[in-house]
């Protein structure tokens, strides 16, 4: 897990605690944010979630040159 900000440890703890449960990823994230909001004065709703669809990254071809002779 990875979180940033003043409630990051709280959010990470909530994500860890809900691992393996029947909660959806969105439910787990919302719970993590609510926990951080409850125990950190710097975290407040509303919370916005952005879903990023996976994409394929084209393979980059590189050429390796031998080092120059000294």
Mean pLDDT: 89
Distance between the termini: 47 Å
Helix fraction by DSSP (H/I, runs of at least 4): 25-40%
**Unreliable stretches:** none
**Secondary-structure content class:** mainly alpha
Rounded to the nearest angstrom, the radius of gyration is 20 Å
- Helix and strand pattern: HH
Number of strands: 0
Tally the helices: 2
Strand content: under 5%
The geometry reads as: elongated
Largest sheet data: none
Describe the structure.
With 70 residues, this protein is mainly α. The protein contains 2 helices and no strands. The chain has helices at 8-17, 25-39. Helix 1 crosses helix 2 (25-39). The longest helix has 15 residues, at 25-39. The protein is elongated and about 65 Å long. It starts with 7 loop residues before the first helix and ends in a 31-residue tail after the last helix. The mean pLDDT is 89.
What are its keywords?
mainly alpha
Show the helix and strand layout.
Blueprint (H helix, E strand, L loop, with lengths): L7 H10 L7 H15 L31
Helix pairs in contact: 1-2
Short description:
The chain has 70 residues and is mainly α. The chain has helices at residues 8-17, 25-39. The longest helix is centred in the middle third of the chain and has 15 residues, at 25-39.
